[in-house]
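Continuing from the previous page...

OK, I double-checked the sequence for ATP-grasp domain-containing protein against my notes and this is the correct one:
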Amino acid sequence: MDTSPAAKTWNQRMKIRNSGGEDTANWWVNDKFKLHQFCDKNGFPMPEAYHFWKTPDELDLTDAPVKFVLKPTVMFSAWGVMLLERTSDGTFFEELTGRSLSIDQIRSEQQRAYDICKFKGSYRLMMEERIESSIPGKPIPFDYKVSVFYDTPEQVHQIDRNTNPIEFAFFDGSFEPLDLTGKIESDWSSKGKGEHHRPPEHEEMLTIATDLTKALRTPFMRIDMFSGPSGPVVGELTPSPGDAYYGNNFRYTDSYEIDLGKAWDAAESRMGAQS
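Thanks. Re-ran it with the corrected sequence; updated structure tokens here:
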């Protein structure tokens, strides 16, 4: 009789990570200022960082380019993220919400994000290069979230923010459309099921995501990426993806949880063999 302990599922692995029981999580990557420094030093492509401010009241957009991204460096999800374009009347059009905002309104909204921030000692407000979409009719670039298990990509979560509600699609680790049957479940009410758009540079995207995870020496990391006119760029890194963990918009099936848990185990073994 097999008395060996059952392998931990992906969710069980994530609970250990979130509780501080794993020393390879690299939580510092949640700080986008530090992530920019790391990627610049190690040659991983990111959007250009134009400016950083320590607090929202310091924000000055006098010399801002026509189009840019404004976001806090230590907030989660889309808190405080703005895709801004300067308009002729002196206001800024915010693409994600379709609003025209004055500089005072921008400061006010960023102040609200700052007020709830739990990491004010590390907080910075960042103005960053805006990556243009390469898909006709889709002005907001698709977000490709690559789940890498050390040296092996297993899944790519595609997000289209040009629709309302936003739409999800999934690829496997080879960037082929993923058959969700028996793997990912959702009623698709809060988020829609979108069409697959595999970027032309998908192989380069997987290589960058894999090389970055290997450089961090972690058994799991989600690399959030965009495909722009100049090729793939890293948007941010997520050590603990919330959707899959909490089941907010979709959930992994029990069998897929086990498969991804085994992928985590195998990634740790390969890391150990290469140490």
